Amino acid sequence: MRKRLVLAGGGHAHLFTLSRLGVFDDAGIDVVCVAPGPFLAYSGMGPGMLSGRYALEDLRFDIEAMLSAGARHTRGASRFPPARANGAFGHVFVQGRVTGIDPEGKGLVLEDGRELAYDVASFGLGSVVDAPFPVAGEGVRTVKPIENLLAARCAIESRVEAGEAVRVVVAGGGASAFEVAGNALGLLAGLGVTKPLVTVVAGRGLLPGWPARARRLAHASLTYRGAKVLCDRVERFDGGRVMLVGGGSLSCDMLLVATGTRPPGVFARSGLTLSPDGGLSVNAFLQSPLYPDIFGGGDCVHFAPKPLPRAGVYAVRQGPVLCANLLARLTGRNLTPFRRTGTDYLALLNCGDGRAILRQGPLVLEGRWCMALKDWIDRRFIRSFGPPRPPRKSGRPA
């Protein structure tokens, strides 16, 4: 009797499992991945897509193709009617969004009412932007999903090509907000705009918690190219104006929201142990403490032994351990603890002008070689989970 592993979400924490489907085949395990779409966009390259350095196809993983490549046999129809399926032995992609979890009955509910039974389930749903103000409406884009940055780029290009001014406001002061602001400047420079109207509403300032040198470099990178940085917060966006908590307002044609992230709301009312912000709480084995057949990794989980920042590096680090533990749980073997919780990892921020800021522990550097290093690391990461790609020239100079 074959068992079924359901991967809820094609997030970064699940990439390693999706690339090792042969070992699940050999153990008699069917792998089903359910996600809103067949592609996963790599967040680390998203800001570069805004500036035109990358195309969408440069930075996404083909989840459905990974499942197809991992299926080595064929048989009849699957045991449930998926919206998309590769028809291959055991490994199926289901297009849909998980909206309900029944840990007692070991099933997931999709937004269209379909139900998926599992023997073991793993959640790699990523995170959503935690905006303290409404983000619906024309001219507002959150930085997640990453594809929003492509839509923002197209909207900005259309306005510039029509001869219209584009007043861009970035809400947030963290790493994502800095990269988005820098790459908005890069986009405008590439379009021939010599006096960009870009304002960053950065709360307590740029890169809080980073070394002072990194904060100075980030501030200089933006202001040297014409951006303004305000220590304030956005209260709301109303009729082409951004209203600030401090009482001021800004004219705005495009509001890009990068105000931090939180787990998606799917875990509410599930009966699972959650963190205060609604993330799935997991133990050292990336496993739910109450329901041992539920696992998870990345931004949607709360690592109870040592709360971790929401950074893609942890999802990637968790991938091999999560894969091993999913297989171990399904085959009755011992689980492996996740130990790579250090915070001194290499961080590289794309400034949007062909340069990057590098930080590792207290070390902070900046330059074009840092961006070359980031580009090499990112492209190698993309290649490691997909078929070889022909080299592509950037649509715009770095």
From TrEMBL:
GO terms for biological process: aerobic electron transport chain. Keywords: FAD, Flavoprotein, Oxidoreductase. The keyword Transport does not apply. One of its GO terms (molecular function) is NAD(P)H dehydrogenase (quinone) activity. It comes from the Bacteria. The keyword Cell inner membrane does not apply. Residues 92-319 form the FAD/NAD(P)-binding domain. Its cofactor is FAD. This is Pyridine nucleotide-disulfide oxidoreductase family protein. It comes from Solidesulfovibrio fructosivorans JJ]. The lineage of its organism: Bacteria, Pseudomonadati, Thermodesulfobacteriota, Desulfovibrionia, Desulfovibrionales.
